[in-house]
Amino acid sequence: MEFLSRTQIITALAAVGLALYVLDLVRRRRLSEEYSFLWVVASVVVAILGFSTPLLKAITHALGILYEGSTVFLFGLGFATVMLLHVSVKLSRLGFENHALTRELALVRYDLEQLRAERGAPGSPTGGGHGA
User: How far, in Å, CA of 23 to CA of 29, rounded?
Assistant: First the structure.
């Protein structure tokens, strides 16, 4: 039976702690379920790799990596890269949607000003009242 190294124990416990923290963020509605699933899965994978020395050694050997810690680091770096790409795609889409909504709001405001001007409503630039 192989013993766990200090690094494996710290890594695995940190992963379990992260998973619990993510679940707490979801419970308090500070993180959506969509993102929490990705974080919990990544934390569980890192915890399994941290607690399972034979599995970690097998994966390390299969990938041709020299140290088990480097394998865990590789998985973490891969996850961070995928998450950054996912968040960038989401942010880009939200930027496009924000731009479209801003244009639509400008058109609605323009139409509203035109209607007010046609009716001579107070508050319009050409209307009879004190305007905005």
Answer: 10
Closest CA to 71 of 88, 89, 58, 85: 58
Residue entry with tokens 């970690």: 56
3-state SS assignment for residue 50:
helix
C-alpha–C-alpha distance, residues 132 and 58, integer Å: 72
Q: How far is 9 from 4, CA to CA, in rounded Å?
A: 6
Residue 123 gets the label, from left (phi > 0), alpha (psi -120 to 50) or beta, of left
CA–CA distance, 21 with 122 (Å, rounded to integer)? 55
Contact between 43 and 35 under an 8 Å Cβ cutoff? The reply is no
Q: Which value, to the nearest 10 degrees, does the dihedral of the CA atoms of residues 27, 33, 39, 42 take?
A: 120
Rounded CA-CA distance 6/32 in Å is: 33
Mean pLDDT by 10 residues, the chain (132 residues): 76 87 92 85 84 88 91 88 92 96 97 92 56 48
Count of CB atoms within 10 A of residue 38's CB? 14
